[in-house]
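ERR on first pass: missing label on line 2. Operator R.T. fixed the label and resubmitted. Corrected input:
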Amino acid sequence: MKKATCVECYFEFEVDDDVMLGEVIECSDCGKELEVIEIKDKEVALQKTETEEEDWGE
Amino acid sequence: MEFSMVCNRLSWEEKSIAQAAKRKNIKVDIILNTTYFVDLEEDNVSNDIVLQRSLSYVRGLYTTAIMENFGHQVINSYKTSVTCGNKLLTTLELLKAKIPTPKTYCAFTKDSALEALDELGYPAVIKPVIGSWGRLIALLKDQDFAKAILEEREIMGNIFQKIYFLYQIIRQPPRNRKQYVSRDKVPRDIRVFVIGEEVVAAMYRHEMQGDWRSTATRGARAVNCEVTPEIEDLALKSAKVVDGEILGIDLIEGEELMVQEINHVSGFHALSNSCGVDIGGRIVDYIIEKIKK
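pass 2 clean. output:
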């Protein structure tokens, strides 16, 4: 498992090893959706992600 | 064996496709359109086949155009994306092919839209020609309400909001009343998922209380739907009309089964959960067959 820190509530939580760049994951404490922007050996960096934009979805 | 996949980010669907590919020993080159750029004279995509999964319609459309120009086979094609991404163009194709669809009017000014609504009758629906997830769709219950909505649209900056796409609402429970259980008397539509020439799954989307839109992202309740020959026939005919390969087709049950819209980058999280079909895996199987050809 890798570790990540929520950029919203700063909770540190574990992330599966098969996590992928660009993947959207949920903070296990506050539930905020976060996007993976960097994957290191034991650590994953996250950023806030847009939930919806004008031309999104189907 | 390898293919490329374009996306804004990896939501549940893209992750399930990537995981299915990994299980089947297929490499996926993920192209995030948030960081992608290209010299328009120099191809920088390594695979022949590209799966387009952009959440953003505009980014998806133009990355598809660019990649097709370099000779890549993009699923779905630019032509399919232009048609399916625009409700008016989709309706025109459906009408041309004589596929049942709700009665629809189009107008370009507030006053002509009001005249069109008088002919169409209330309640009616106004829907942006480009847009998804139920955004800015309004149920026009009467003329006063229609005037308010149309005035609002006239001052909106987006030019596409000034194309008034108006259609008859068909909002009734299933035709075969013997199939009801009391819980399922709620209005619903049907999302049918087509891959190639096959319908792989379908679900009913029941409206949530307090929201007439039966969009899964708005919380519509998803229930497995048996794929009847009628559903299969209509979905496959519709897919052919837009030359689509992987599509989510929305049907509604009026006096006859009708096509409401066709989605070219369709979500399938709720559908996979309600039907128990590994849609991500089926998409990868389809791509494998395409690569072999």
